[in-house]
From TrEMBL:
GO BP field: endonucleolytic cleavage of tricistronic rRNA transcript (SSU-rRNA, 5.8S rRNA, LSU-rRNA)
Any Pfam family hit: RTC_insert
Source species of the chain: Malassezia vespertilionis
Family membership noted in the UniProt record: Belongs to the RNA 3'-terminal cyclase family. Type 2 subfamily.
GO molecular function, one term: RNA endonuclease activity
Domain spans labelled RNA 3'-terminal phosphate cyclase insert: 189-288
Protein name: Rcl1p
Entry annotated with the keyword Nucleus: yes
Any one GO CC term of the record: nucleolus
NCBIfam families, sorted: 18S_RNA_Rcl1p
Main location class: nucleus
Domain of life, per lineage: Eukaryota
Keywords recorded for this protein, A-Z: Nucleus, Ribosome biogenesis
Entry-linked InterPro entries: RNA3'-term_phos_cycl_insert, RNA3'_phos_cyclase_dom, RNA3'_phos_cyclase_dom_sf, RNA3'_term_phos_cyc, RNA3'_term_phos_cyc_type_2, RNA3'_term_phos_cycl-like_CS, RNA3'P_cycl/enolpyr_Trfase_a/b, RPTC_insert
Length: 366
């Protein structure tokens, strides 16, 4: 492999993002200086687990880790797909593994049927409810129409079992259709919020906990919109994991199908009312930030725009987060795509646009 093809990064931040972009670009990557000054230097268990999952999803990948674990060399193979089962452990939630892996699935050689086991909703990681209700619809906007028809395999995320921290015990199943290429995005109108939907889930606690979360969230959101439906999702028996816990996920949809999401998870000392109020206030703050894509999904949307066809893609976003800015840099490094960013007068929103690299999938056009 020629030296100029090698991607070089430093630090443990954005570990998943860089591995996935390197895989899509078919370029080897070396990540150095991974926590060199910590008491326990090197990669953590969940990062090593993500590397193992990447090896399962691809065919022909090679991973080299130095003795101290502070440097990783990854040479990607082809994205193969097929049936894959992986235990995510309990140090991070399932969302940590699934959030960026969703990008690889449409470009696989065989349809990816992925089963992940672990914590379905954990503090610090995107919950599986948010991935199902926001991440997948954003991905669907980029998929060609023939891949989301009733004749093609569906884009789905099914929550088989819920598992709360710290012991997990949850399980999800993810499947995505194969594509020939993505569509160019043109999403510049935010619209007005027309409905809010939410899920209050509770495992190994009283079912009344979910109702208390719903009442608390309603006390805030009912002042702003009448079209508000919050659902209770209580799992029992073996489907409820190994630890007690409760969480709430909210999604606001605009008249132009822009999505804004928030979620809150129980922690020691938190009541159901605290979780419901936290989720509702976070959602209002997210709506206030503006844009057609919520802050947590800005890097995801930017990466999809860069992978799209050789046509101009446009998207209106709120103020770019630090994660989105770093994604712009990594995309330029891995794919050679440069974005044009223009501020929109009388608002903090920005209009980002680019010409994609035209990445092709394995699906044959008939």
């Amino acid at each position: 492999m020629s030296e100029d093809r090698l991607l070089r990064f430093s630090g443990h931040a954005y570990f998943r993002q860089r591995l996935v972009l390197a895989t899509l670009a078919s370029r080897p990557v070396r990540i150095d200086k991974i926590r060199p000054d910590d008491q326990e230097p090197g990669i953590r268990n969940f990062e090593a687990s993500f590397l193992r999952l990447m090896e399962k999803v691809t065919n022909g990948s090679a991973v080299e880790i130095n003795y101290t674990g502070t440097a990783v060399y990854y040479k990607p193979g082809i994205i193969f797909g097929g049936p894959v089962t992986h235990d995510c452990g309990t140090s991070r939630g399932i969302g940590y593994f699934l959030e960026w892996l969703v990008l690889l699935a449409p470009f696989a050689k065989q349809e990816l049927a992925l089963t992940l086991r672990g914590i379905t909703t954990g503090t610090g990681d995107m919950g599986v409810d948010t991935i199902r209700t926001v991440t997948l619809p954003i991905l669907a906007m980029f998929l060609p129409l023939d891949s989301v028809s009733i004749l093609a395999s569906s884009l789905e995320l099914r929550i088989v079992k819920r598992g709360a921290a710290p012991q997990g015990g949850g399980e999800v199943f993810f499947r995505a259709p194969l594509i020939a290429s993505l569509r160019a995005l043109n999403f510049v109108e935010c619209g007005r919020i027309r409905k809010i939907r939410g899920i209050a889930s509770a495992v190994r606690v009283s079912p009344q906990m979910s109702n208390r979360m719903i009442d608390a969230a309603r006390s805030v959101l009912n002042r702003f919109i009448p079209d508000l439906y919050l659902f209770s999702d209580v799992y029992r028996g073996e489907d409820s994991g190994k630890s007690p816990g409760f969480s709430m996920s909210l999604v606001a949809t605009s008249t132009t199908s822009a999505l804004h999401a928030s979620e809150a998870t129980s922690a020691p000392g938190m009541t159901p009312e605290d979780v419901g109020l936290c989720a509702a206030r976070q959602l209002l703050a997210e709506i206030q930030s503006g844009g057609c894509v919520d802050a947590s999904h800005q890097p995801f949307a930017l990466a999809l725009m860069a992978l799209g066809p050789e046509d101009v893609a446009k998207c209106r976003m709120g103020r770019l987060t630090a994660q989105a800015v770093q994604c712009l840099r990594d995309v330029r490094e891995a794919l050679g795509v440069v974005f044009k960013i223009r501020t929109i007068p009388e608002s903090e929103d920005v209009l980002v646009s680019c010409v994609g690299v035209g990445l092709r999938g394995y699906r044959r056009i008939t």
